[in-house]
Design goal:
Length: 410
């Protein structure tokens, strides 16, 4: 099949779906299983967890989209229950380490502490599952990276892979929503409210958006990372490139565990623990995100992905049209990882030569506080309350003065 050319400047790419093996839908599964009744718990379980290459293996199908929505809502429900408890643990640990005045001056860190405890638990659990599940797979053992592409598109999507993708997609969607929630405060204003005499305040919008105190210092990088990641997740699932996509997932999850640990230690200003976790984080980051991902995985995508054409099922024109999408997407991730590593170098310099623990990914211009001893520079509780209230009430001030920090981060 060639390219249908409408004009000398426009081409119409043929659809990919007809060239991929058909995934088994639930109604077709029930028809095959004459003993199973439609909608029964047994048939649903067999379809979801015991049958390979079902429609759950493609995030673009209505079935997987529905399951994905349920998983996102479930994750958000669990977080709403657990995060206050995790934040309470951080508050108690901070009190014991720094004294009773620490809590009032570090409300932002307490909120972020709860979020990162949840992330740590998720990344540790999904990393353990990933290593265990992929340990005996051919692209991990004898087959090497060629097994990522040879035999495509006839790779069976096993239930373990389908649910691995669904959980990862749900987590990444929730992480994107959480990033926006921690970064922006949205205030609705009635258009019928009495206007003031000030000319500036007369030009009121129905919706006002302001920065929150909990906004990350690397918000721009993290925003792009989440967008690219979610697009790659859905794209690799739709194109049945789950083998390659799962390896990219695993590289990120393994390196996120020490990242979460170092952030938790730094939020509490445990200097020794922060230093140990930081150097472990840098080492793991270099191995996974600066070597395995760009050299092994991305190198295989660039030099070996043409083996998807060996089966003769996929037309070369489709390979030529779709490969730039993955080339550019994964390259974006690698560039972001390099940018974060440069940030780590700055943080390491401050730690080694200035004896200061600054998390520049959370606080763009660093943290002005004493790190010697057990006390941190305290900001009066009234100041903390004022800045948080200002961000909550429509963001009348653009200052991002974090609790416990003396320096403004505009």
């Amino acid at each position: 099949m060639g390219i249908a050319q409408d004009s000398w400047l426009a081409v119409q790419v043929p659809p990919l779906a007809p060239h991929l093996p058909r995934l088994l839908t639930y109604p077709d599964f029930v028809k095959q299983q004459s003993s199973s009744s439609y909608g029964s718990v047994q048939s649903l379980y067999q379809y979801a967890f015991e049958t390979e290459s079902t429609s759950l293996g493609n995030l673009g199908t209505p079935t997987s989209a529905l399951v994905l929505l349920v998983l996102v809502l479930l994750i958000r429900t669990v977080k709403s229950i657990l995060l206050p408890t995790f934040s309470k643990l951080g508050r108690q640990a901070g009190r014991r380490t720094h004294g009773p005045d620490w809590e009032a001056a570090n409300q932002v860190r307490i909120v972020k502490f709860g979020e990162y405890v949840f992330r740590l638990l998720y990344h540790a659990a999904i990393s353990l599952y990933g290593v265990t599940y992929f340990w005996d797979k051919e692209w991990w053992k004898s087959g090497g990276t060629l097994s990522l592409f040879q035999g495509f598109p006839n790779h069976a999507v096993q239930p373990g892979m389908a649910w691995y993708y669904l959980l990862q997609a749900a987590y990444n969607l929730d992480a994107f929503v959480s990033l926006l929630e921690l970064s922006f405060c949205v205030t609705l204003q009635s258009p019928f409210a009495k206007k003031t005499t000030t000319k500036k305040e007369q030009q009121q919008w129905p919706v006002r958006i302001a920065w929150r105190e909990t906004v990350r210092g690397d918000f721009q990088e993290m925003f792009v990372h989440h967008v690219v990641t979610n697009v790659l997740v859905i794209g690799s699932s739709f194109c049945r490139l789950t083998r390659t996509g799962s390896m990219v997932f695993l590289v990120h999850d393994l390196s996120d565990v020490p990242v979460d640990l170092s952030k938790l230690a730094n939020f509490l200003k445990w200097k020794a623990a922060t230093a140990i976790c930081f150097f472990i984080m840098v080492l793991v980051w270099m191995i996974t995100r600066l070597y395995i991902l760009p050299v092994t995985i991305y190198g295989a995508i660039l030099t070996q992905s043409q083996h998807v054409l060996e089966s003769g099922v996929l037309p070369p024109v489709l390979y030529a049209c779709y490969r730039p999408f993955f080339y550019v997407g994964v390259a974006f991730l690698i560039l972001l990882h390099a940018a974060w590593f440069a940030m780590f170098i700055r943080m390491g310099y401050l730690l080694v030569f200035k004896n200061e623990t600054h998390d520049l990914s959370e606080f763009k211009k660093g943290e002005e506080q004493q790190i010697h001893g057990k006390s941190s520079t305290a900001v009066p509780a009234t100041t903390t309350k004022t800045t948080i209230t200002a961000a909550t009430n429509g963001g009348k001030t653009r200052s991002r003065r974090y609790a416990g920090d003396e320096k403004k981060d505009d």
